[in-house]
Predict the 3D structure of the following.
Amino acid sequence: MTSSPRSTARRLPAVLVATALALCVVGCRAYKPQPFDETSLQGRIDTQSRDGLTVSVAVLSRDESRSVFGVDLYENEIQPIWVSIVNETEVPFWFMLHAVDPEYYSAREAAYKSHYLLRPWSNREMDDRFEGLGIVPMVPARGSTSGFVFSNVKLGTKEVRVQVIAEKQLERFHFYVSVPGFKADHSAFDWDALKKREDKVEVETEAELVALLENLPCCTSRENGTGKGDPLNLVVISPERGLTAFVRAGWDETELLTLSSAWRTFKAFFGGRYRYSPMSSLYFDGRPQSIGLQKARDTIHERNHLRLWGTNWRYKGDYILVGTITRDIGIYFTPRAWTLTTHAIDPMVDEARNYLLEDLLTAEAVQTFGAVEGVGEATKSEPHRNLMYAPWWTDGRRFVMHLAPIDRRVPLDSLELFEFHMPTDAHGELDGRHFEGHGSIEDAAPAAP
């Protein structure tokens, strides 16, 4: 039965009223950010002072930014950083927001990305709120400024670079700030406990270091010590408790495996980016990796991923960490994994090792470099195979990188080499075996055992 024009006309006002009520439900909720008081950040504000300037920074968590700004900024990949600069000199300075994040958002832009649909009055309040809390870059003589910089989201440890300039003067401050709400896989790793171990081994000479490192196992293993997995192809010697060199070079920390992170990984498997995806455990000395780090492209199927193990060894008092790095280049199906899929690695594993060296050198984080034997040479025609039976080949060496202290940068032309610095062939030339050709993704998938 069809409706008459008259009955349709009678229902039209009711439809309009229902639509208006629905729009009111969506659009009439009040915009209610909570008052911001910098004292709420006490206990995790990082502060540095030098030459009459005092700079303090803190990064808001997702929940904090939602409270302060009344909207979920993280949903739009925006992360507010609170910055305070106190100038006790007679010279005015200019705070360079670009140094904090070259792709920072202006206050109005950050607000606009968070605007509501059909709520112009709330959006005007939001614009005023963001602009009022955004930092004013001018730092007057004998004065101060404070407020927020709207940066791109970085979870885990975030590098915050503060630069202020005056006439013929530039002052730099570097911070490495923990972002609240992120649980990294290395959160249980105790750097202090390593130094207190009674069985720690102190190494003082390069000859002792080479002997120690060349006697390491070639590869990771299963938890019970059986099998040969990915190559233990690098050693990091660090004077610091922490990961500042890697953060400076743009590496992301790995999130602890939880239901939440597992769900994000599952979703990212079918598309989308997840830079902090949990890693499967590989084993060295009967232990899973102490630290997982990664650099992902727009998909978790393509990334460099790095695992490090803390040890009870010291080189001239500095920590020695053993690691493995490979490059994921895709996925393939395999009955060896309970998920029936696993990541294909670039079988020329030396490429990822070389990449890490260049990456840390570019970040000016390496003070001394060398290479030792120990992995065992393998060729494309006679490769090693990992626990998924995927092939990989190598020149057989592990790179040794002694990192610089956090407050020191080492330009490329100031890099020092260990006496064992680079292997040569029988003719004294640099050994180029690791430049052997790459394979395809089909090469990376396992053949039948």
Q: What stands out?
A: The first strand starts at residue 46 and ends at 50.
